[in-house]
Design a protein that fits this description.
6 helices, 10 strands
Length: 212
């Protein structure tokens, strides 16, 4: 969470009016600053400044999903380009790596498809020439929480799934993005990644190594 700076000098009459109308001054000022500053930033700086908005954009594209529970293990057979796959997942950051077309996105979409979540822009299908296949997902029961309120969904100890979220960022800012993301979402993170990047305390799952 970003540090808050409360040093604001405001017209007293405006402050009294805002209080009388029960307007949240801090929120109003922050939103005004965002509206003014965001258009002036580069795309990568904008992502780092407002990660939540970026995640919302990825969600609309079908590259970001939220589950209310952490994933413990996934097994696939004859799904998309994958013959077979089996791997455990840690409760922290999980990085799915592999060459283009190896099935990273298929794996991510398969996990959410089990729970009835459809992804825009892509479907999960059987491997060409195969008549049967399966997707099995073992979850960590009781560890996930979704809190729903009038202001939206607060995601805390569930699972955040992302399809190559650093693709728009240079290497140095990609590391900053991952660090900030982990600070914002203390639950499990599962993400695909094309680039080679050392992320401390993460589990790397090379999709080509866990095929069987």
């Amino acid at each position: 969470m970003a540090k808050k700076n409360t040093l604001l000098y405001l017209d007293e009459d405006l402050v009294r009016m805002a209080k009388r109308m029960k307007v949240n001054i801090s929120e109003l000022a922050e939103n005004a600053l965002r509206e003014k500053l965001l258009p002036l930033l580069s795309s990568s700086d904008r992502i780092l400044f407002d990660i939540d908005s970026y995640l919302n954009e990825l969600e609309k594209l079908g590259d970001c999903f939220f589950l209310s529970f952490p994933v413990k293990k996934v097994e696939l057979k004859n799904i998309g380009p994958l013959d077979s796959f089996s791997s455990d997942f840690s409760s922290g950051i999980n990085i799915i790596k592999g060459p283009a077309g190896s099935g990273k996105t298929t794996l991510l979409r398969s996990i959410v498809r089990v729970f009835g979540i459809s992804a825009p822009g892509g479907t999960v299908t059987l491997k060409d020439g195969k008549s049967r296949g399966y997707i099995k997902v073992l979850v960590r029961e009781g560890e996930g929480v979704f809190r729903v309120s009038r202001s939206g969904i607060e995601r805390d100890v569930g699972s955040l799934l992302l399809d190559d979220p650093t693709r728009m960022l240079p290497s140095d800012k990609a590391k900053t993005f991952i660090k900030k993301l982990k600070g914002m979402y203390p639950g499990q993170i599962i993400m695909t990644m094309d680039r080679d990047m050392d992320i401390p305390n993460s589990k790397v799952i090379d999709i080509s190594d866990v095929l069987y």
